[in-house]
Predict the structure.
Amino acid sequence: MGLRELGQLEQDLVFGDAGAKDVINFLRTKQDATPENKLRLLMIFASVYPEKFEGDKASKLMQVAAEFQFLVFRDVYSAFISIDEGEP
């Protein structure tokens, strides 16, 4: 997955040149995008189009983001500990 393509879509979202259909298309066609990039894209979309995430939808998005952040932190922490203990 090209960083340039992702960056262009992010920029287009921020400046109003892309919308939900573009994000959905990207997520469907770019299966190799990292979870971090997918989450960042969704968070940008949510910040640009907050009306799309009113009420329960916003709560669910924040919950998913928090859980994802915990999982990433846990993995990074585990990797750091194994390096610190001299494990490969």
In short: The helical segments are 3-14, 20-29, 35-48, 56-84. The mean pLDDT is 78.
